[in-house]
Amino acid sequence: MSMDVLDAIRLRRSVRSYTPMPVDAASVRALLDAAVQAPSARNLQPWSFVVIQDRPWLARIGERAKQAWRDDPHWKGALAFADPGFDIFHGAGTLVVICTRDEGFAPIGDCYLAAENLMLAACGMGLATCPVGLARDVLQAPDLRASLHIPDGERAVLPIVVGHPAGTTPASSRTPPRIHAWLANGA
Ligand SMILES: Cc1cc2nc3c(=O)[nH]c(=O)nc-3n(C[C@H](O)[C@H](O)[C@H](O)COP(=O)(O)O)c2cc1C
User: Fold this and answer.
1) In ligand 1, which atom is closest to the CA atom of 88?
2) Alpha carbon distance 11, 6 (integer Å)
3) What's residue 3's pLDDT?
4) Which of 20, 143, 146, 165 has the most crowded Cβ, counting Cβ within 10 A?
């Protein structure tokens, strides 16, 4: 990996357009290795992973998620969920689901740190990512948990698609840091 970490932080985007080129297994392993370098409370490392690179499976999970959102009273009428052309995985051929054990001090936070490591590493490797929170809840369904071998006491926290970016994605805006206080010596 050659990219400076600050460049990766600056250049990472949530990418929603991918080429059909698959992500090779060695790259996926490198991303998982980057993920597990994240800090975790009491070093409990609560994360675990499911990797899906099977297009029919991605389509099945995507359709289940869309169906669930279509039925959700909050989102009823949201056109995208009824659109057969809308792929919640944005055409990516690799999905990494970060899962966690339901115990420990801050398991969800730990997993989000692992997620950011994974996404920055992908950026450094010339790959693109997008977190897909929309797919999280459907992955708690008992049949999907069973198919994906997610054991009892663990659950999906954040699905992230990975792929080769098609085109460029502009940066989304950020507000400057809101700093409530900055207590320095002698101030
Ligand atoms: C927890 C989480 C869930 C997200 N879920 C989705 C999603 O389901 N679909 C999607 O296209 N983007 C999703 N995003 C991406 C955000 O929309 C994106 O991070 C935000 O707009 C800022 O853009 P950037 O990541 O390119 O800087 C998610 C991001 C996070 C952190």
Assistant:
1) 9
2) 9
3) 87
4) 165
